[in-house]
Amino acid sequence: MSSNFRSWGTIPHPPQETLRPFWVSELADLFANQAQSLAVGNGRSYGDSCLLQDHPVIQTTQLNRIIRFDRQTGVIQVEPGVKLCDLLTVVVPAGWFLPVTPGTSLATVGGAVANDVHGKNHHTDGSLGCHVLSLDLLTSDRALRTCTQTVHTDLFNATIGGLGLTGIITAVELQLIPINTSWLDVRYQTFPNLEEFARLSTEARDDYRYTVAWMDCATPGSAGRGVLISANHSEQGDLTVGTAAAKFSVPMNCPKYTLNKYSIRAFNALYYQLQKRKEDGVRHEHYQPYFYPLDAIGHWNRVYGKKGFHQYQFLVPLDAMPVMSDILNTITNSGMGSFLAVLKEFGDIASPGLLSFPRPGYCLALDFSERGEKTAALISELDARVREAGGAAYPAKDKLMSADSFQQYYPQWTAFRQHIDPVCSSDFWQRVSNTSVSTHQTQQPDKL
Ligand SMILES: Cc1cc2nc3c(=O)[nH]c(=O)nc-3n(C[C@H](O)[C@H](O)[C@H](O)COP(=O)(O)OP(=O)(O)OC[C@H]3O[C@@H](n4cnc5c(N)ncnc54)[C@H](O)[C@@H]3O)c2cc1C
Question: Which CATH architecture is the domain 183-399 placed in?
Fold first, then answer.
């Protein structure tokens, strides 16, 4: 048992007791013996969906074996604690890639399924849950079920994006996508405002598998400018594997004066100019820096200092671009704008996940230093606008979502809660469900 597990936002919280089993066969006893618990991966969620105050979490990072990999069909089955970077080390040389990847390769497969993560290809491939062929789920009554789209379907749908609340995922079977090289052909296009972003994004979505934009949220008068980055897997190059090891690390928490509206504006202006220089044609980039630029900087979350930070990620429907502009103004005027704001158009490929976040719309993610009431008030104001617009915020990034907001963003939560394991809970869930007592699942177990 240790107590150093934290979520990525590093907002201080009481020490989190952590159990780290080595074998899947240890899990049934470990899980059944807890009054309350939660399976967690590598703590790359920003808020409190991977924390459980006063009870131990079960961290799966040592359950990191590849169970089966068919090089002909690209079907792979892994234990839940396999990190995406380690999976890529095995599959890329064989000409396969993750069907969907988040912006860090340090997430585990189990954690990625439990958040139903999305990537830069949501408009073409949907979220990760769309590519899960099967998952094995252990519940606290020691039952192990293999769930698919046709077997234990309700539990399958509840577990994808199910925030770890339906039990412990002990294996995941994924369909990978074929690649000829580990390189991408990448196009950079700057835009002056949100309207132009929308136009460029619509233009790019049929021709590019991956699209994402960085946007300036901090500079008054220039907020809304940015760069749209569109890419396809390249036919030119080799199948080299990238390294997820950081090139350098932030050695300690930065003092709070490092981050202020002037340094954030200066960063945004510099970043914009650097990206503008790349507009000179198609660039050839390896998947590692293209998909995972922040993994190159170890402990980058320390930039926000010892009080930590929030990431707020939300989406609004496609016809609510004026609301996005409004939200952008609110953020810029607050002087709390973010270093890196990431903007993306999501498509209409539905996930099987009951609590899945992605849906058609424009999605923006940005970071705010923790400044207590001031940050809470800003996020609450943003939440009010997102609710009014019929949008949603992403639990994987959240520490402040109210029960009302959650229940509006995720109307299927009432169907979902039928599938919660009685032992499972999280700080996030206790806040948004207005309850500290889990309800019971109804499916018949096949005893281990
Ligand atoms: C730099 C960076 C970029 C990111 N970019 C994106 C992005 O582009 N898109 C995106 O969607 N997300 C993104 N994220 C968020 C991150 O991908 C997700 O939060 C991911 O789920 C974290 O995985 P993890 O292994 O660290 O899981 P944790 O954060 O430890 O846990 C996440 C959730 O999964 C549950 N869980 C973990 N393992 C299991 C298991 N075996 N069984 C059942 N439940 C389990 C936990 O209970 C928790 O609810 C990013 C994060 C970072 C730090």
Answer: 3-Layer(aba) Sandwich (3.40)
